[in-house]
Design goal:
three-stranded antiparallel β-sheet; 4 helices; alpha+beta; about 180 residues; about 35% strand; six-stranded antiparallel β-sheet
């Protein structure tokens, strides 16, 4: 069985990644009290002020009869993030940290790589990529303010669909977790 091509994996990963993360993980720190958010402008203002949070979840990608899944954990502290991807990807566990622009990757063998273009260099190294610069916003249900986005909303002002940076993200089944 051959691995899906990077051009096939990226759109499929985009469709599978964030809904799974949002359903199986918590994107806000435990114990945070959020005010009522009756509309999109209020929701965006409140969520964009959350600087320290984490989530843990699973990602799954399928391409016809082929696919893979992995565990993903992400911690955001201001502009800095620490993330780990592990699972049956043939990579063991990959640790990433950075500020969204520059990313340091430590592979399963302990070798450290400094990436200037994380999206492209992760694809070259492993055959998959994560939207490192945007994921911190998408996990909170926000578009990345650094690039143009097309958005669709639910009737109660929540982000339902986002197209940004050649990714399509669908947000479904919102649940309140720990406030």
């Amino acid at each position: 069985m051959s691995a899906p091509s990077p051009t096939t994996v990226k759109p499929l990963l985009a469709r599978a990644l964030l809904p799974l993360l949002l359903l199986s993980g918590c994107a806000v720190q435990r114990g945070i009290e959020l005010p009522p958010m009756p509309d999109w402008e209020t929701r965006r203002a409140v969520l964009s002020r959350i600087d320290d949070w984490e989530f843990k979840g699973r990602i799954g990608v399928s391409a016809g009869d082929e696919g893979f899944n992995a565990n993903l954990s992400w911690q955001q502290q201001g502009n800095l993030f620490h993330a780990a991807v592990s699972g049956p990807l043939g990579i063991g566990k990959v640790r990433m940290e950075g500020d969204g622009d520059t990313v340091t990757v430590t592979d399963n063998d302990g070798k450290v790589h400094r990436l200037e273009d994380a999206d492209e260099e992760l694809r070259e190294m492993y055959g998959w990529t994560l939207p490192v610069a945007s994921l911190r916003y998408w996990a909170l249900g926000l578009p990345d303010p650094a690039s143009p986005a097309a958005t669709e909303f639910t009737g109660d002002g929540r982000l339902a669909r986002l197209e940004q940076r050649d990714w399509t993200v669908r947000f479904s089944d919102y649940e309140e977790e720990a406030g």
